Amino acid sequence: MRFERYGKGLAKGLNITLKHVFRPRITTQYPEQKLTVSKRFRGYELVWDKSRCTGCATCAKSCPQGNIEIVTSRGSDNRYVVEKFEVDTGRCIFCGLCVESCPYDALFLGLDYERASYRRGDLVLSKEQLELGPGKRRSGYFRPEVESTLPRQTLLLDTAGRKKQD
Ligand code: SF4
Ligand code: SF4
User: Fold this and answer.
1) What secondary structure does DSSP assign to 89-124, as a single string?
2) How far apart are the CA of 99 and the centre of ligand 1, in A?
3) Average pLDDT over residues 81-98
4) Which residue owns the Cα nearest ligand 1 atom 6?
5) Pocket of ligand 2, beta carbon within 6 A
């Protein structure tokens, strides 16, 4: 009776091991290889569309961390000119409230996630660093028009397993 019980346990254990031996590998050789994050990923930074921003500062007022600093001056056509638009990403909790509150769809969360730094000051991003342009990847978080253009997520998904099911 005792031997039978131990034998069953052994067979069960080996069965699980064998299943894993033949399972397709899902390891990614980061940082050489990278997976695609969620379309609505809340990355380490904000992306700012200068052309749409009116300098209203609604985003700054919505930030629970007081992270966004905006300084404006009055332009010749009586519109605000944004002199300073600075975000301290070191204190940011990436809640997305600033993005949600922007009435002009000028603010986005980013898709990038690599920003290790030795200096805290490097995490304070200026308007030039936040500005939408080549290399800036916007997240689809709260922006369905952006989300519809992004590729499907592969990060943390067992894509090999999913392909078999499809
Ligand atoms: S994501 Fe949240 S914490 Fe970060 S700047 Fe926007 S409102 Fe502030
Ligand atoms: S809420 Fe939008 S339009 Fe207003 S200052 Fe912030 S980013 Fe610019």
Assistant:
1) TTT-----HHHHH-TTS-EEEBS------S-GGGGE
2) 8
3) 96
4) 98
5) 53-59, 70, 102, 104, 106-107
How many A from CA of 87 to the centre of ligand 1? 9
pLDDT given for residue 165 in this prediction: 42
Q: Is the pTM of this model over 0.85?
A: no
Ligand 1 geometric centre to CA of 166 (Å):
38
Which residue, among 135, 164, 40, 58, has the nearest Cα to 94 in the 3D structure?
40
What sections of the chain are H helices per DSSP? 2-21, 58-62, 97-101, 127-130, 144-147, 159-165
What share of the chain in percent tops pLDDT 90?
Answer: 72
DSSP 153: P
Give the pLDDT score at 27.
Answer: 82
Closest-CA residue to 19 (of 11, 27, 31): 11
DSSP character for 56? -
Under 8 Å CB-to-CB from 60, ≥6 apart: which residues?
Answer: 68, 69, 70, 98
What phi and psi, each to the nearest 5 degrees, are found at residue 114? Answer: -100, 105
- State the chain's mean pLDDT as an integer: 90
Class of the domain covering 46-147: alpha beta
